[in-house]
Request: fold
Amino acid sequence: MGRREGNQGINNIMDLFKGVAYALVTGLMWGWVFVVPVMLPGYAPATLAFGRYCAFGLVAVALGLVDGERLLALRAADWREAFKLALVGNIIYYLCLAASIQISGVPLASVLIGTLPVVIALCANWQERSVPWAALLPSLALMATGIACVNQSELALIAPDQGVHYLAGALLALCAVAAWTWYPIRNASWLKRHPELSTTTWTTAQGLATLPLAALGWILFGAWQGQDLWSLGPQPWRFLALMLSMGLFASWLGTLAWSRAGRLLPSALAGQLIVFETLAALAYGYFYRGRWPDALSLVGIALLVAGVVLGVRRFQRHTAAPIH
Reply:
């Protein structure tokens, strides 16, 4: 019995570190989407969002031709769930975020979206009770402080006298936070309840479910803006290349890595590890601008990394505990 318990603990710890590695890959992929709008300044946020998810859907169509047998084996309930995840985690999230940015500006939206690692971890642990709250809160406190530090320039730009625009932008950003708090917890829960599902097939299914939604959004937004359906804007080849890169790497590969992390990790830990996206976005942003972060941002980055390390260690101790 003792040997079996010991082996089980080792396997769980290996799953823990594999899950963290998948979450890191996810962060590296998702962080890319924060740089693309800077590289395409002449495009509306909604155009970038629908363009990204149309590309994701087209990538899924291509991959679906290879994985057709397993896709056909999915049940009607699986497709309904994929549609829900695509609608909430992709379309609603990005529409609310884009609208918030357009109404109240980047500072407010970035600060509220930056709370996701903490909010997801709190909600997931409330649902799963993965670890005692006393063990979870120190790492979340470090992350919250780090997020405040790295967003200090954004916080300074928020003007409390914007009135209705400020309130509307805040509500939309909070809707985006709610959408992307629901998505990772729901996605991980579905995969854990259906271990027979391949994460690769599940990711492709979500892409296929996203395509009609994104295409409809592209058509409606283009009609509202009075644009030609086939217009790709002032930099068509650059736009097309960046959309395809986001569709393949950020949306498909990032979602695949996240689904694998969600299957291996408690949702409370996976939620904290979304901070890898924040760290990657910061790194890419500073590299693209060709400058180093200021002292307070460096302190914030150090706190974020410390929060990740502490969170993983807390879950490692919990995972390695003897099974009774």
Observations:
- The CA atoms of residues 61 and 272 lie 32 Å apart.
- The chain is about 80% helix and 0% strand.
